[in-house]
Amino acid sequence: MLRAILAFTILSLSPTAFAGEAEFRLEPIQGNVFRFTAGHYHSIVMPTPEGCFVADPISPEAARWLKNEIQQRFDTPVRYLVYSHNHFDHTLGGEIFDEPSITCISQELAREDLVRTRTETRIPDLTFKDQLTLHLGDSQVHLRYHGSNNGRGSISMKFMPADVLFVVDWIVLGRLPYMDLKGYDIHGMIDSTREVLDIPFTTFVGGHGRTGDRQDVARYLGYLEALYGRVVEARRAGQTLAEMQKSIRLVEYKELDRYQEWLPLNIEGVSRTLDDRSYLDMQMER
């Protein structure tokens, strides 16, 4: 039954009485990998005859809708719930999947932060430091930690044999990074994105933004490197924040969503990071 359902390329939403269902969608991406959308958030579902893999629940309302949709559409139990990182706007709703038959997993730093901040969601049962591979019949999900980039314990998820890569927050295709980079490590974002491009994959799915391929991820990396390089250059030339926000245009990336509104904020975020993490302000004063 499940394999026949997965063969469909166009899926309609199941009827549900849940309020706000128009905000939620579950759509095929590649092979047996589906993208779950809740507003402007995205997550991943991978159903198999041996059970279902679910990434970030996003919110209690979204998780409740998704759990019902999985039951109705695939008729297979959820086996794994995996958090992409520690941030509450991706991990809330984990309690909807709080059953003994479901293993909740995260990178160890993500779990540590959820516990310390007393985030009201399901706390992971299983953690890992660098890498972990989960098996569901003929399908696998490879989880990998890339170091600091956004939040704590942020990982990539590689789905095989579908050849899909899922990353949340530190890579957003078709859009600038979020506002003034609150919670971001620009150095780590660049390094982590370079590492991602060393991983073979066909299709990229992000926690926000659109889906894409390797070229789209490479273009996003180009923006990060150009932004960082121009801010360092301007700071060393003695420019103030206001002067940098006026002079740094990066017009080669003007097609990216939120270019006009967020480029000045991105510049501010990189400049702040240079002071907070690299002490550039103190270095320039010497």
Task: Name its key features.
hydrolase; Metallo-beta-lactamase, Chain A; 9 helices; RibonucZ/Hydroxyglut_hydro; 23% strand; 2 domains; 286 residues; NDM-1-like; 7-stranded mixed beta sheet; 5-stranded mixed beta sheet; hydrolase activity
Write a compact overview of the structure shown.
One of its GO terms (molecular function) is hydrolase activity. With 286 residues, the chain is α/β, with parallel strands linked by helices.
Number of DSSP E strands: 12
CATH homologous superfamily designation of the largest domain: Ribonuclease Z/Hydroxyacylglutathione hydrolase-like
CATH fold call of the largest domain = Metallo-beta-lactamase, Chain A
Radius of gyration: 20 Å
Structural class: alpha/beta
Contiguous low-pLDDT stretches (5 residues minimum) are 1-22
Main beta-sheet annotation: 7 strands, mixed
Please indicate the percent range of residues in DSSP E strands (runs of 2 or more): 15-25%
Q: Regarding CATH, which class of the largest domain?
A: Alpha Beta
Q: How many domain units? A: 2
Q: What value does the average pLDDT take?
A: 92
Strand order of the largest sheet: 1-2-3-4-5-6-7
Shape: elongated
Q: Helix segment count?
A: 9
H/E element order: HEEEEHEHEHEEEEEHEHHHH
Ends distance: 70 Å
Q: Give the fraction of residues assigned to helices.
A: 25-40%
Q: Can you name the CATH architecture of the largest domain?
A: 4-Layer Sandwich
